[in-house]
Design goal:
Elements lengths: L2 H6 L2 H9 L5 H6 L9 H20 L11 H8 L6 H26 L9 H4 L5 H10 L11 H26 L12 E3 L2 E7 L8 E6 L5 E6 H34 L1 H27 L5 E3 L4 E6 L12 E5 L5 E5 L6 H15 L12 E3 L3 E5 L13 H14 L4 E5 L8 H17 L3 E6 L3 H5 L6 E9 L4 E8 L7 H7 L4 H11 L1 H86 L7 H14 L2 H12 L8 E4 L4 E9 L2 E6 L2 E6 L3 E3 L6 H6 L9 E3 L5 H18 L3 E5 L6 H12 L3 E6 L9 E6 L1
Parallel strand pairs: 5-9, 8-12, 8-13, 10-11, 11-12, 20-21
Antiparallel strand pairs: 1-2, 2-4, 3-4, 6-7, 6-9, 13-14, 15-16, 15-19, 16-17, 17-18, 21-23, 22-23
Length: 776
């Protein structure tokens, strides 16, 4: 992309705003027009990476601060030049950020948040954690640590001991009746020597060496001879310290050089990720969205807006060029938004091809352009000062020479600055030439001849910016497919011009011209109504989709719950049949045993008892039915019941005739009264008894990784156990993920009869990945 296009579209300002979101100075320096790509695969990769980063930022802040360019440090290490503590700390910070990102990616994977493009930059790096550990164990922010080596620890311990002796000796001198001879009772340093401030007139009373004199000349700083030898010893020890520190730093430098290529890879990866997150952060602040890019096709930017105009005042417009449309001609009043529109199109293309979210609603689509040209030179352009006809033609000449089918050409006020008839003819000729080269063109104009030009070609459409005659001001709304019309008569009438003058002007303008204007007015009105209806329809469609999604989720949950109930019923029935078979076999064996003892030994009462046992095993359902009938009249709203046909407990919400509405977990259904058995209320003393002894039930339930239905089943069983354990508060760990499991859990808790309240976890409890439940 040439500099004229970058400057006239003000893309340089977009890059400046983008760089403010980068952490590293190296990344900021790389944010130039060079980030624009013309390769489809590369653009798709950039957009996907930024989409990953945007997903991560919706869940948490990603800290990349502190990273800096370490390649120069690595090169120094490779040639054997000693790295100092600051350089090693730069490397440590880089490795720390790499470790942090590794942990973050693992957490997102655990929470089942899909990230397909960013993690590979970190997970694919070689493991050099040992170097991070070595640097951390060796240096802090400013110096080599004492325990970096035994020698250093020993030397520094001796230095501290000797310094303590010196201070003790100097304090004895100060306290030994010399206070009146001193300017101040303090110990200070001059030229790395310990000194005391002595009044100049008492200099001869002290046996020592003068190292400095005050600015007033009234105080001399003397080192008493009593500590000279001890200070010399400290200097010797400090030389040893310096030698050992250099040895340690050289050793760390050598270890750094051994993994130079790995560090270079890490530096490249982290600065790349810094760039990606800068784009995602800027896109979030801007309110941009992920575009779809194509090798062929048109331009679709729903609710597009200029990214440099504050969002609160920008007007959003749908900009549409299908694959068959090669040119759009925009007409309308001055300062009505024509220039803003073509800049919005150009900036959206440049941003998309840089991997930056585009200023439009979801669903944006753009083709990839290998070249983008612009000729924008009116008074509305801050950056472009060439506005004469000759300068425009000079620029357009270059565009015509270089454009091809993969070019986007943006022409503002095409043909302006000369005789209207010649300018219009020249504008049409330029458009025809560009269309012959299959370029994609967006042009603005005042010339009415260009309005009719689009009707002669299938690949050209008109558009206009709306003007409100009532307020005498532009609305900045773009009307696709409708040419702009002259509002001179309406404006003049609004401003109070004599009606006779206006009437005569209409006659002079001609009937055909007036009919065209009337037709355009009707089209504008129709378009406005259609746009309003479309917005209302889209809103209703969004609401309908949301309701449909909720209903679908409910039906899925309900079907899963029914499957569970059927499974439980089958298992219960099979168990009853199996138990009955076993019991029948036992009865048969008993009777055969009796028979073997001889018919005379079989007592009548024994046969009756065995018959009764066998009969009982096949008539449990009849007993339950009678129990239901006995309980039916006693059930009322608010009662806790057992739903006998499902083997579940629930709460009666309402009773109507022979049916009751019962809440069972997340399911609400109508059940016959003969299917319900009223649960006995527990005595108040029982919970106290349950507190005795240690409950095996944990105070938290981890549902991460569970399927939706199984997770809710586990939660239901867990809450039953919690009630038996008499816990007042428990935690449900569902993770963050897509939020579906969290929503399902909280919906279940909202309808559970024994849940008093619930809330999201605090940061120290796990944040949004945890729901804290308070039981009744």
């Amino acid at each position: 992309m040439n500099d004229r296009t970058i400057n006239s579209l003000e893309f340089d300002k977009i890059l400046t705003q983008l760089s403010a979101h980068a952490e590293s100075e190296k990344t900021k320096e790389r944010i130039t027009p060079a980030i624009i790509s013309t390769e489809l695969a590369e653009v798709e990769q950039m957009i996907s990476e930024v989409d990953d980063a945007s997903t991560m930022l919706r869940y948490r802040n990603i800290e990349l601060g502190g990273i800096t360019d370490i390649k120069q440090h690595v090169r120094r290490a490779e040639i054997g030049s000693m790295l100092g503590v600051p350089e090693l700390n730069h490397i440590r910070t880089m490795l720390n950020r790499k470790n942090m990102l590794t942990k973050v990616f693992d957490e997102f994977e655990e929470d089942e948040v899909e990230l397909s493009h960013i993690p590979v930059y970190i997970t694919g790096l070689p493991d050099i954690h040992f170097l991070y550990r070595r640097i951390t164990e060796t240096v802090d922010d400013s110096r080599v640590l004492d325990h970096a080596s035994e020698t250093l620890l020993r030397v520094r311990s001796r230095i501290n001991a000797e310094e303590g002796k010196i201070r003790e000796r100097l304090n004895e001198i100060i306290r030994g009746g010399n206070q009146k001879k001193l300017s101040d009772s303090i110990i200070t340093m001059r030229n790395n020597r310990y000194v005391v401030p002595v009044k100049v007139e008492h200099q001869g009373d002290f046996n020592g060496i003068v190292h400095d004199i005050s600015a007033s000349g009234q105080t001399v700083y003397m080192e008493p001879m009593a500590v000279v030898q001890m200070t010399n010893q400290i200097q010797t020890l400090k030389d040893e310290e310096e030698t050992e520190v250099e040895r340690i730093l050289y050793q760390l430098t050598a270890e750094t050089a051994e993994v130079a290529s790995e560090l270079t890879m890490t530096d490249d990866a982290l600065h790349h990720i810094d760039m990606v997150f800068a784009k995602a952060k800027y896109g979030s602040v801007l309110g941009g969205t992920k575009p779809e890019v194509m090798a062929e096709g048109g331009i679709y930017l729903p609710a597009a807006f200029h990214p440099l105009i504050p969002a609160e005042v920008s007007v959003k417009n749908d900009i549409v060029m299908d694959g068959e449309t090669r040119a759009v001609i925009i007409t309308g009043p001055n300062t009505g938004g024509k220039t803003v529109t073509i800049k919005t199109i150009g900036l959206s293309a440049l941003m998309a091809q840089s991997g930056i979210p585009v200023p439009a609603r979801d669903g944006s689509r753009l083709r990839i352009f290998s070249k983008i040209y612009s000729d924008i030179g009116d008074e509305q352009s801050i950056e472009q000062s060439l506005s004469t006809f000759s300068s425009h033609m000079t620029n357009i000449t270059g565009i015509l020479d270089e454009t091809d089918r993969d070019s986007l050409v943006l022409l503002d006020e095409l043909g302006a600055g000369t005789d209207p008839e010649e300018g219009a003819a020249l504008a049409i000729s330029i458009l025809e030439y560009l269309l012959s080269r299959s370029a994609t063109i967006v042009a603005t104009t005042h010339y009415p001849q260009l309005k009719s030009f689009s009707y002669t070609r299938d690949d050209v459409i008109n558009a206009s910016v709306e003007f409100d005659v009532n307020t005498l001001s532009p609305t900045y709304r773009l009307l696709m497919g409708i040419p702009g019309k002259s509002n001179a008569f309406e404006i003049s009438n609004k401003l109070g011009l004599n009606p006779d003058v206006i009437s005569r002007a209409r006659e002079l303008a001609g009937r055909d011209s007036q009919e065209v204007n009337d037709m355009i007015s009707a089209l504008e009105k129709h378009t406005r109504n259609a746009r309003d209806n479309e917005q209302e329809t889209e809103e209703l469609l969004r609401e309908s989709k949301a309701v449909h999604k909720d209903l679908r989720n409910y039906m899925d949950d309900f079907e899963a719950y029914k499957d569970k109930l059927r499974k439980n019923a089958r298992e219960a029935a099979n168990r009853i049949v199996k138990e009955s078979e076993i019991r029948a076999e036992e009865v048969i064996r008993t009777l055969e045993d009796m028979k073997s003892r001889g018919a005379r030994d079989i007592q009548e009462h024994e046969i009756i008892e065995q018959k009764k046992a066998l009969t009982d095993s096949y008539h449990q359902e009849e007993i339950r039915r009678k129990e239901r009938a006995a309980e039916k009249e006693k059930i009322q709203a608010g009662d806790e019941v057992d739903v006998l046909s499902y083997g579940q407990k629930g709460e009666v919400l309402a009773v109507e005739g022979e049916e009751a509405t019962v809440q069972m977990g997340i399911i609400k259904m109508k059940v016959g009264l003969d299917e319900l058995k009223k649960r006995k209320k527990q005595k108040q003393e029982r919970p106290v008894a349950r507190r005795i002894g240690k409950s095996p039930v944990k105070r938290e339930l981890d549902l991460r990784g569970e399927r939706y239905e199984e997770a809710l089943n586990r939660l239901d069983r867990y809450l039953d156990q919690v009630l038996l354990s008499n816990y007042n508060e428990v935690e449900i760990i569902h993770g963050k993920g897509t939020g579906a499991l969290q929503k399902g859990v909280q919906q279940f808790l909202r309808t559970h009869p024994k849940v008093k309240s619930f809330r999201g976890g605090m940061p120290n409890e796990g944040g949004f990945g945890v729901t804290v439940v308070e039981m009744k």
